[in-house]
């Protein structure tokens, strides 16, 4: 990656974090592999800054909040508890855990589907030394084939372990003829309703998608024309 290109993506990630935007999943091949910032680490950074500056949980846009719950397991109630802990520590000048240390150290449990495509993430020599033989074999396979591999072709426990450490990431393939269904967000509390252009796009999708399955190619092009990839 060229220096100017690296600076561009670094600025993009800083801007996204500071504006509480969704992780840029469409750039994962760069943000994870080159910039070494997984979605989990991205949301840890956001919540750390929010706790340190005592921002309300309501300041999180809805889709960002939902993604943070999915990856960190931290919703409104958990965030309030963390905020109380950090305030208590500052009030009594305790030398205890920082806001970052209070946050999860690995992603929440994720059900990995067999058809998800597994990609190699940021692999440093220091990381390789800590891998088991099975984990090394999976990483070598991904590197040798130089393309994503369906998760179902790899050992589940190994894939889970590598994912927890941010050494792999997943692409979820979507075809024009696929059907999508939006499941109820049980226990999710709506936050602010105004977000960035991508959040607005997702709301448009929700308007189009009813409680039945909707085919991808039925979504209006007008709904996505404002998104520049």
TrEMBL record:
Q: Where is the FAM91 N-terminal domain?
A: 2-219
Pfam families registered for this protein in UniProt: FAM91_N
Superkingdom of this protein's organism: Eukaryota
Descriptive protein name: FAM91 N-terminal domain-containing protein
Organism of derivation: Caenorhabditis brenneri
Q: What is the lineage of its organism?
A: Eukaryota, Metazoa, Ecdysozoa, Nematoda, Chromadorea
